[in-house]
Amino acid sequence: MLKGKQKRQLRALANGINPIFQIGKASISEEMIIGISEALEKRELIKINILQNCEDNKKFLADEIVRKTSSNLVQIIGNIIVLYKQSSNKKNRKIELIK
Questions:
Q1: pTM of this prediction?
Q2: Which stretches make up the CRM domain (predicted)?
């Protein structure tokens, strides 16, 4: 679970990155969950764009992705979901969270 200061730090870092996944009408699939998990392992912090033709609730989608990838929800802003998960591989760890 992330603390307030940690979320603020991650939001600031996420400001400079672009979404790497898009969720559309087909919603989320197992292949997308696998891709998101792999991206989180390599990057630790990612953005996901929810397209306007997606019929699912963005809070529901975010909770579902967080549950299936064991990641942390940093924020939902507009149609963008920001996720964080510390890499299990020490070589891929780029973000040092505030204590």
A1: 0.91
A2: 1-96
